[in-house]
């Protein structure tokens, strides 16, 4: 295998690996990633990153080396039938067991962009952690990320079977992905505020303490005035271990580009932390966002860059986080140039990819 792109992950984490593998499939070009997760205290592939790499190998019947626990160098060649500007990927039904409370949603994140090259529907069922640290809770994916991306052509849905909290995991969810024509993204303005939706969940073991209700109350009391709660959903879920999560979705009227801004803010329950405080933490993040003008939250800003690479477009982001900077550097490394525009009046920056340079051009 002679890699087309040689990538260095010494200053990056798992998102770099997930996006690099997706880009390799989308471009149908072999890559070599060295110093995998090099800036982490335990570098190399951990269980959830290994699950992503193994899934990509299986989906493409790819040639790969270094796909093993702890590996700090990975070579991956999707080896789809023809080397072409527009490779095609067969769908099918797949099942993955991460084996720990590793994040189900981050595995979904790696696979979502592949909708652009699918020839038939893909159904991916994953067992692991559905609501765990350092990753978006499942309700963020279902109620924020997927609705936002559907505006730009993504055909996808997420089905929950069982919640999985840290440390046991054991949750299960299915991603349904169909062949999709991704359109250029225009999210430079979020329009007028159009309401709030709140999703609070508790494991059945916490139901007697009314954790879901108390999380919701804590969030609503802390949120800035003027937001109308259009939906308040509190659920009790079967799970192998106790846990809780809350997701706040802020939604806006269509901006000048015709797209509706959506932003999500999350928090997870922890032992010793009052449920009200968990809700307050999510609300505090929402309040900070409300002070700006970006139409997407800081976590979505990073996750959207691979979709900008697909079709081009412009997204105003709350800030250029380390994740955004790393993702931009990765796109540049695989020959997808990006631009960061800073407004003179201090308005949040706009990240853009010219459609002529996009992968699906």
CATH class label of the domain at 193-290: Alpha Beta
The unreliable regions are none
CATH superfamily of the domain at 193-290: RNA 3'-terminal phosphate cyclase, insert domain
Q: What does the overall shape look like? A: globular
Helix fraction? 25-40%
CATH third-level topology of the domain at 193-290: Dihydrodipicolinate Reductase, domain 2
Number of helices: 9
Q: What portion of the residues fall into strands of 2 or more residues?
A: 25-35%
Structure summary, number of beta strands = 16
User: What Rg do the Cα atoms give?
Assistant: 20 Å
What distance separates the N and C termini?
Answer: 27 Å
SSE string, helix = H, strand = E? Answer: EHEHEEEHEHEEEEHEEEHHHEHEE
CATH architecture designation of the domain at 193-290: 2-Layer Sandwich
Which structural class is indicated by helix and strand composition? alpha/beta
Mind describing the biggest β-sheet?
4 strands, mixed
What's the rounded overall pLDDT mean?
A: 93
Strand order of the largest sheet: 1-2-4-3
Domain RNA 3'-terminal phosphate cyclase: 12-332
Catalytic activity: a 3'-end 3'-phospho-ribonucleotide-RNA + ATP = a 3'-end 2',3'-cyclophospho-ribonucleotide-RNA + AMP + diphosphate
Family: Belongs to the RNA 3'-terminal cyclase family. Type 1 subfamily.
Keywords: ATP-binding, Cytoplasm, Ligase, Nucleotide-binding
């Amino acid at each position: 295998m002679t890699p087309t792109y040689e990538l260095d992950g010494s200053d990056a984490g798992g998102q770099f690996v997930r996006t690099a593998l997706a880009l390799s499939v989308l471009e149908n070009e072999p890559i070599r990633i060295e110093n995998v997760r090099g800036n982490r205290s335990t570098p190399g592939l951990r269980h959830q990153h290994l699950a992503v790499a193994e899934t990509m190998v299986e989906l493409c019947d790819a040639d790969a080396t270094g796909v093993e626990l702890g590996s700090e160098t990975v070579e991956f060649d999707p080896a789809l039938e023809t080397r072409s500007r527009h490779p095609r990927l067969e769908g099918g039904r797949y099942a993955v067991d991460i084996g720990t409370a590793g994040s189900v949603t981050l595995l979904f994140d790696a696979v979502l962009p592949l909708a652009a090259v699918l020839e038939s529907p893909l159904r991916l069922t994953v067992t692991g952690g559905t609501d765990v640290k350092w990753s978006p809770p499942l309700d963020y994916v279902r109620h924020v990320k997927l609705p936002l991306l559907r505006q730009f052509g993504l055909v996808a849905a997420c089905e929950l079977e069982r919640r999985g909290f840290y440390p046991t995991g054991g949750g299960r969810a299915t991603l349904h992905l169909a062949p999709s024509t991704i359109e250029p993204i225009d999210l430079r303005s979020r329009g007028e505020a159009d309401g709030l939706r709140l999703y609070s969940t508790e494991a059945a073991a916490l139901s007697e303490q009314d954790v879901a209700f108390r999380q919701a109350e804590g969030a609503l009391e802390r949120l800035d005035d003027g937001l109308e709660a259009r939906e308040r959903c509190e659920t009790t879920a079967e799970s192998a271990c106790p846990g809780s999560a809350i997701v706040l979705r802020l939604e806006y009227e269509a901006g000048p580009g015709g797209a509706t801004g959506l932003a999500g803010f999350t928090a997870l329950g922890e032992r010793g932390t009052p449920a009200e405080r968990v809700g307050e933490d999510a609300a505090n993040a929402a309040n900070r966002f409300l002070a700006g003008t970006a139409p997407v939250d800081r976590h979505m800003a990073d996750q959207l860059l691979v979709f900008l690479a697909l079709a081009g477009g412009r997204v105003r982001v709350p800030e250029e986080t380390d994740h955004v900077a790393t993702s931009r550097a990765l796109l540049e490394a695989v020959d997808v140039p990006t631009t960061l525009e800073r407004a003179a009046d201090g308005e949040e920056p706009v990240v853009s990819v010219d459609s002529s340079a996009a992968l699906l051009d």
